[in-house]
Design brief:
Blueprint lengths: L6 H19 L9 E6 L2 E4 L15 E4 L16 H10 L5 E5 L2 H7 L22 E2 L7 H10 L5 E4 L3 E6 L2 H24 L7 H11 L7
Parallel strand pairs: 5-6
Antiparallel strand pairs: 1-2, 1-4, 2-3, 4-7, 6-7
Helix pairs in contact: 2-4, 3-5
């Protein structure tokens, strides 16, 4: 880009870089895998494809329109997964950030075609009585995007079969920390599977948890 973006946009771009680096330091992903985005100016900002997070500059962050077309000529190529980011923003007016990663335990479950059922009440943190599994499709395709959007119709997180994890939220911080929570749940579920005889909570019990979550935490 020939010109520096305005200050607010610079802050958002730097925020994306900071959280991209956290993807590695938190263990949610390794190397250049994974991608994150944030809604901005009738479109969204997203990490570029195949660049080291540690070396990113604000000029490397890609600005796409909500139809997926570049908002700026001559910028970097976006993440290969830009399509499901784009479609999620189109279908979910309530979200402003998307985090996609390949954490170990979520990916292990996804590679054995397992969703995360109601083995623990904290599963409700993703908005329902399970954390669903989106069916496999080739990365970067319309089919994968369709599968992800469908899985996240009434959820804030899902696994992707033979792939990884997606978490969405109203802020980048919310999406990132939800991804951490889901990976913790995935680890616990993997350990529970080893022990066997998992007791699942009923739909009624999970409905009660979901209702209680609506009034949980600090209120101004």
């Amino acid at each position: 880009m020939s010109e520096q973006p305005p200050k607010y946009e610079q802050q958002l771009r730097q925020q994306l870089i900071d959280y991209a680096i956290k993807l590695n330091s938190s263990g949610l992903t390794q190397g250049k895998s994974g991608n994150i985005s944030i809604r901005f100016d009738n479109g969204f900002l997203i990490t570029p494809t195949a660049l080291s997070y540690q070396q990113l500059t604000i000029e490397d962050i890609v600005h796409l329109q909500l139809d997926g077309l570049p908002a700026i000529e001559g910028q970097r190529k976006p993440s290969s997964e830009w399509r499901f980011h784009c479609d999620l923003y189109q279908h979910r007016d309530d979200i402003n950030a998307v985090v996609h990663a390949h954490p170990d335990y979520c990916t292990a479950l996804a590679c054995t075609s397992r969703a995360i059922p109601a083995f623990h009440y904290m599963v409700a943190i993703a908005g329902g009585d399970d954390i669903p599994l989106a069916p496999y499709a080739l990365f970067g395709t319309e089919q994968l995007s369709h599968n992800v959007v469908t899985a996240l119709t009434q959820r804030q997180a899902c696994l992707i079969e033979n792939h990884g994890l997606i978490a969405i939220g109203s802020t980048l911080s919310e999406s990132f920390h939800l991804a951490l929570e889901v990976e913790t749940l995935a680890k616990q579920y993997c350990e529970a599977i080893k022990l066997g005889d998992i007791k699942l909570l009923s739909k009624q019990q999970m409905t009660e948890v979901i209702a209680k979550f609506k009034t949980y935490g600090q209120r101004n």
